[in-house]
Design brief:
This protein is an alpha+beta fold. The chain has four domains: 10-97, Uridine Diphospho-n-acetylenolpyruvylglucosamine Reductase, domain 2 (2-Layer Sandwich); 110-216, Uridine Diphospho-n-acetylenolpyruvylglucosamine Reductase, domain 3 (2-Layer Sandwich), CATH 3.30.465.10; 223-326, Alpha-Beta Plaits, CATH 3.30.70.2190; 337-432, Alpha-Beta Plaits. The protein has helices at residues 10-18, 27-32, 54-67, 119-128, 145-151, 158-161, 196-200, 234-246, 259-268, 290-303, 316-327, 329-335, 352-366, 394-411, 430-433, 436-449; strands spanning 23-24, 47-49, 71-74, 91-94, 110-114, 168-174, 180-184, 209-216, 223-231, 253-258, 279-287, 309-313, 339-342, 345-346, 372-375, 380-387. Strands 9, 10, 11, 12, 13, 14, 15 and 16 form an eight-stranded antiparallel sheet that branches. A hairpin with a 5-residue loop joins strand 6 (168-174) and strand 7 (180-184). Helix 8 (234-246) packs antiparallel against helix 13 and helix 13 packs antiparallel against helix 14.
Length: 463
């Protein structure tokens, strides 16, 4: 719902701020920025602006602040919570042109890149310098570094290597009124002032607009191997994942796929060996040399002794074949159904088996398919509720199932969002997850940094 009438001089003011070539109100462009990949109801902006540099971003925000116009920062539009949907109209501020990657600082293991840089391009730049940027969100070929910072994105490697926040050293950003500032330091330690950079990470563009990021890089592993294990129940697979975590071993990935996920992959992939069973664990280990990796793989194999079937992948091409199947899962789910709700919850590691059992019960109760895959080492589960909005009461049942999944995570001591953010779609549940006083403090920060409430309004925090 739009908050106010668009000022008649908005487009002209924005053209002065960013240049005429950077501003458009053409209908097709507005429609392209109306939604992300969340399934949230589309809502086109009133104007799209693609600034060429940080100074232009500052001038655009200065105009928006003065006129009281909402601004929705936009990355690759790959979000799954509706964070980039301009529900109140205003300006879709695309940062796609801010995609410069500075030369990698090999001596200090760091690199700076614009907010519009694609994750895969950043990873390739690091690799070209013999270094490694581990965060690997599923949409890495389209997602941007600025978007990753906005939601504190993760991915399968986060169990060992951590999420985006653990790699951000410093940020360049623009305040709501258009002032450019830098925060953080390009050093491994920094105890000067408040940790403002960390406050902006995960804030979904509601506090400031990030335009450039300085990221920590690491030395890459020299070897990797993987094991798969099938189980007769999804709970047994969850128990095995928890046992691996308790053992002290830290795999580079610990992924769980339930029977529905496996069936969808078999339907759509050929030549990929996927064992029969109610669930599959994919465990990858990496390290400095083949000897260390081999020892860890044997440790993993021993911990999976209770599995129905085990397979080891020691060759790089075999490991990559397994990951090709894993990366194909989200598209396979999307192709299998007319509509779906893709969820992102996190529970304590030991609660993963019970969370899986409860999700199975929810699927049965509402007579819906809910395939689940999980970054099990983190306790991060992705249940996808499949339905057809045109078929009877399926949409109503799907959203009731979503509600029960989120509340099951909370009852188990977890959270409603692990790596996708809150956006629009999870706002109704924030009060159940966060302390009321903490919400008041967050609102106070929002008011202080964005007094006119123009930055991505209606997202992240309940009104």
């Amino acid at each position: 719902m739009r908050a106010r009438k668009v000022p008649p001089d908005l487009v002209g003011e924005l053209e002065k701020a960013a240049g005429p070539a950077s501003v458009t109100a053409e209908a097709g462009e507005l429609e392209a920025f109306a939604s992300d990949e969340s399934g949230a109801e589309p809502a086109p902006p009133d104007v799209v602006v693609r600034p060429a540099d940080t100074d232009a971003v500052g001038r655009v925000l200065g105009v928006a602040h003065r006129l009281g116009v909402p601004v929705v920062p936009v990355g690759g539009l790959t979000g799954l919570a509706g964070g980039a949907v301009p529900r109140r109209g205003g300006i879709a501020l695309s940062l796609e042109r801010l995609d410069r990657i500075h030369p990698v600082d090999r001596d200090n293991l760091r690199v700076s890149a614009g907010a519009g840089t694609r994750t895969v391009d950043l990873q390739q730049a690091a690799a070209g310098a013999g270094l490694f940027y581990p965060p690997d969100p599923a949409a890495l070929e389209r997602s941007t570094i600025g978007g990753n910072v906005a939601t504190n994105a993760g991915g399968p490697r986060c169990f060992k290597y951590g999420v985006t926040a653990e790699y951000v050293l410093a940020l360049e950003a623009v305040s709501a009124e258009g002032r450019v500032f830098r925060t953080g330091a390009a050093t491994r330690k920094n105890a000067t002032g408040l940790r403002l950079a960390q406050l902006l990470i995960g804030s979904e563009g509601t506090l400031a607009v990030v335009t450039e990021v300085t990221l920590r890089l690491v030395v890459p592993p020299r070897a990797r191997a993987a094991a798969t294990a099938s189980f007769d129940s999804v709970e047994a697979a969850g128990e095995a994942a928890a046992a691996i975590v308790r053992s002290g071993l830290v795999p580079s990935a610990l992924e769980l796929l339930d029977a529905t996920c496996l069936a969808l992959l078999r339907e759509q992939l050929e030549g990929v060996p996927l064992a029969e069973g109610a669930a599959l664990l994919l465990v990858e280990v990496d390290g400095p040399d083949e000897g260390r990796v081999g020892a860890d793989l044997e440790h993993v194999s021993a911990l999976l002794a209770g599995a129905r079937e085990r397979e080891l992948a020691k060759r790089e091409e075999d490991v990559e074949l397994l990951w090709a199947a894993r990366r194909a899962l989200s598209p396979a789910i999307a192709r299998s159904t007319r509509d779906f709700v893709f969820q992102d919850v996190c529970v304590p590691i030991a609660a993963v088996p019970e969370a899986l059992r409860r999700i199975g019960d929810i699927a049965e109760r509402y007579a819906l398919r809910i395939p689940v895959f999980s970054h099990a080492g983190d306790g991060n589960l992705h249940p996808s509720i499949l339905y057809d909005a045109a078929a009877g009461d399926q949409a109503e049942r799907a959203h009731a199932a979503e509600r029960d999944v989120l509340r099951a995570a909370l009852e188990l001591g977890g959270t409603i969002s692990a790596e996708h953010g809150i956006g629009l779609l999870k706002l109704p549940f924030v009060r159940e997850d966060l302390d009321s006083v903490a919400i008041d403090q967050m609102r106070a920060i929002k008011r202080a940094l964005d007094p006119h409430g123009i930055l991505n309004p209606g997202k992240l925090l309940p009104s």
